[in-house]
Amino acid sequence: MIRTKSDFKADSNNQIKKEKFIAHKAVVLKLFIIFSLIIYIGCAALSGNPVGPPPDPVTVKEVVEMTEAGLPPEIIINKIQQSHTVYRIQASQLVQLKEMGVSDEVINYMQQTYIDAVRQNQAYEDWSNFTLADDGFWYGGPFYGGPFWY
Predict the structure, then answer these.
(1) Can you tell me the distance from the alpha carbon of 62 to that of 87, in angstroms, rounded to the nearest whole number?
(2) Would residue 5 count as lying in a domain?
């Protein structure tokens, strides 16, 4: 079989089409990988899992000190929220906090941390997930070996 000029031209065009198709596939694959990585990284960032060590807890002593320093309840509550501290406060301790000048708003929020923790993780009902600190108050949360709930 004798090949003509047009046969060589057709082969050349087919080769160019194949190379373009392969190059296109490579671009699509790269874009897919980049998109997948962006999704993966975004999901990891939004997962809510802490990165690094957990924040330091806000102790009752620190709450009293912030109250005595004149900080508004909103700021104290915000600090407690950021620390993820869980307080298990007994009735006699509530009276102590009130006598020390801690606002009802802060005391109510401190009590709410326990209620919210138990709603999210029933293990918080067990006293073994709380630690009796030197100040006589019970604390729970990831920094005290309790279950993670945030």
Answers:
(1) 13
(2) yes
d(CA 109, CA 84): 12
Whole-number Å distance between alpha carbons of 88 and 114:
6
What domain count does the chain have? 2
* C-alpha torsion angle, residues 39, 45, 47, 53 (rounded to 10): 150
Within-domain flag for 9: yes
pTM confidence score: 0.54
Which residue type is seen at 137? F
pLDDT tens string 69-100: 999 999 999 999 988 888 988 899 999 999 99
Above 90 in pLDDT, residue 64? yes
Same domain flag for 38 and 67: no
Rounded to 10 degrees, the C-alpha dihedral 86/88/94/99 comes to -50
**Per the domain annotation, does 15 fall within a domain?**
yes
